[in-house]
């Protein structure tokens, strides 16, 4: 069987696209470079929206990227079940594109945060978290300026009651997110947004752990067994 093909979209200002591609490769899939200005997903089996500062975040984090040509195809494909993972800026793009609810606001205290962060996996049933156990604790880096997740109280209640909080901060809340929310998913579980950076925790030589690799092995196993 051919390896699963996971697209990684590069926007102007993307910083972590190559890191995401390396994580995909380490997980056993073929990374496929996708360009923001194209209208072609190249038949990939899943897509990663990487971290960075797409279009410089000049208007609002992720706000311009939602209008990138490739997002037209991505939004439609995600609605049809294509697995999509948005990391940091990618999470912001997913919210701006209305693939996920809520918004990411400037951090409490208005400081850029960069640290190794403890997390807990609260939903191990998504396309991107099935290689974890529920309540499993991880250590992965976090680095953001606009990471404070917020949403209407009714939306937050719905996310909590339906088990759509994928990951939660432990020990401390680095950016003031409601309910310590670090990541959420859509109703189908194929679209996940995560503020921390699992692609920076896939090799012991360069990361605080290898705990982030599970996000990428999860999707590879899901695709292989589909």
Automatic annotation (TrEMBL):
Q: Where in the cell is it found?
A: Cytoplasm
Reactions that this protein is recorded to catalyse: L-glutamine + H2O = L-glutamate + NH4(+); N(2)-formyl-N(1)-(5-phospho-beta-D-ribosyl)glycinamide + L-glutamine + ATP + H2O = 2-formamido-N(1)-(5-O-phospho-beta-D-ribosyl)acetamidine + L-glutamate + ADP + phosphate + H(+)
Q: In which pathway does it act?
A: Purine metabolism; IMP biosynthesis via de novo pathway; 5-amino-1-(5-phospho-D-ribosyl)imidazole from N(2)-formyl-N(1)-(5-phospho-D-ribosyl)glycinamide: step 1/2
Q: Which UniProt keywords apply?
A: ATP-binding, Cytoplasm, Glutamine amidotransferase, Hydrolase, Ligase, Nucleotide-binding, Purine biosynthesis
Which E.C. number(s) belong to this protein?
Answer: 6.3.5.3, 3.5.1.2
Which Gene3D superfamilies did the record assign?
Answer: 3.40.50.880
Tell me which InterPro entries the record gives. Class_I_gatase-like, PRibForGlyAmidine_synth_PurQ
GO BP: 'de novo' IMP biosynthetic process
Molecular function GO labels = ATP binding; glutaminase activity; phosphoribosylformylglycinamidine synthase activity
Domain of life per record: Bacteria
> What GO cellular component entries does it have?
cytoplasm
What does the subunit section of this Swiss-Prot or TrEMBL entry state? Answer: Part of the FGAM synthase complex composed of 1 PurL, 1 PurQ and 2 PurS subunits.
**Entry function:** Part of the phosphoribosylformylglycinamidine synthase complex involved in the purines biosynthetic pathway. Catalyzes the ATP-dependent conversion of formylglycinamide ribonucleotide (FGAR) and glutamine to yield formylglycinamidine ribonucleotide (FGAM) and glutamate. The FGAM synthase complex is composed of three subunits. PurQ produces an ammonia molecule by converting glutamine to glutamate. PurL transfers the ammonia molecule to FGAR to form FGAM in an ATP-dependent manner.
Supply the HAMAP family for this chain. Answer: PurQ
Q: What is this protein called?
A: Phosphoribosylformylglycinamidine synthase subunit PurQ
- Organism (species): Actinomadura barringtoniae
Encoding gene, per UniProt annotation: purQ
